[in-house]
Specification:
single chain
């Protein structure tokens, strides 16, 4: 089938989704999330695929990190670093000891970091690109499989995340250097104020801006674009569409914080009864809570994808769709 070069071929709407732009403009992102959560919950295979590809790459990375930690501790034991006798009853002295220990551990960490980080990053972008394409394909079978473009865009997402983490790490290092020193009494209050402020600031920045690299993989499949074209177009979606994406991202960020807090609470529930229940029960509780957090987090990742697709249908689907037929045969 041939079409004019000025017309984009895109898929038809997902059954049951509205294509009315005025209705979409009036619908808040948070209002639509309940429906998307129900839609994803009734299709557990979507969450299972998301969990499978994340654990497929995540578990080997964690094992590699554990082996590297054991090697570092073998080269520089906790006793030699001055951490064996650290006491939280004297937080000022503990802060100085932690800072001194990091100075000693840093060369060892930097020596093993490239051997883990580079293979882990490559594995992540490849498996996540394939996994995310499978999730979207399962969400709507009419979507194409374009794993190479998905891998390229997952690499862009990871690069943005690494840049943000580097900025956060540098800012935390500045706070430590200016508030925790061995020549004066550590200003722990000021240090933790900066840590909380900077952490929340970078977290909010990621929630506000990460939609650019999150929506691009969808544009590749929904509008038949190249990776570069999708990244450029993701920054020109219009105020109405962009505001929905930002709102969804912020809500998902808040949900993730709530899951972290909930996991911390459930992890501490049995601590007052540790003598009665024993260490094995505590460890089992922590394993169950960790699995719950990971599965719940992956579920909400799929919910966010579904919400992005819904708002694409509302704001761009009807405008870009051909009136007669599409490459998907509809």
């Amino acid at each position: 089938m041939t079409v004019s070069s000025s017309t984009k071929l895109v898929r038809p709407p997902i059954p049951g989704q509205s294509t009315s732009a005025p209705a979409g403009a009036a619908l808040r992102g948070t209002q639509s999330l309940v429906g998307q959560m129900s839609w994803v919950f009734t299709r557990p295979s979507l969450t299972l695929i998301e969990v499978a590809w994340r654990w497929l790459v995540g578990i080997p990375i964690l094992i590699a990190c554990w082996i590297a930690i054991e090697r570092v501790l073998a080269a520089l034991p906790l006793d030699a670093a001055g951490l064996s006798d650290i006491s939280l009853q004297n937080p000022w002295l503990a802060a100085v000891k932690l800072a001194d220990a990091w100075v000693q551990y840093r060369p060892h960490v930097m020596a093993v970091l490239p051997a883990i980080a580079i293979p882990a990053a490559l594995a992540w972008v490849v498996v996540s690109g394939l996994g995310r394409n499978l999730v979207l394909k399962r969400m709507d079978p009419r979507l194409p499989m374009r794993p190479v473009t998905q891998i390229v865009l997952q690499a862009a997402w990871l690069a943005a995340l690494i840049a943000l983490c580097w900025g956060w790490f540098q800012s935390i290092g500045w706070a430590a250097a200016t508030h925790v020193t061995s020549t004066a009494e550590p200003d722990l209050v000021g240090y933790f104020i900066w840590v909380i402020f900077l952490s929340l600031g970078f977290f909010t920045l990621w929630a506000l801006m990460s939609w650019i690299v999150s929506i691009a993989p969808l544009l590749v499949l929904l509008e038949d674009r190249s990776p570069f074209s999708a990244l450029v177009e993701s920054m020109k979606l219009g105020k109405a569409f962009t505001s929905k994406l930002v709102e969804i991202n912020l809500v998902m960020g808040i949900v993730k914080l709530m899951l972290i807090v909930l996991a911390m609470v459930f992890s501490a529930v049995l601590l007052p009864f540790s003598d009665e229940v024993g260490a094995s029960v505590l460890h089992l509780d922590w394993v169950i809570v960790t699995i719950f957090y990971c599965v719940a987090s992956d579920y909400f990742q799929v919910v966010r994808l579904k919400a992005f697709v819904k708002f694409w249908e509302i704001f761009r689907g009807s405008a870009l769709r051909l009136s007669g037929a599409s490459e998907f045969g509809v």
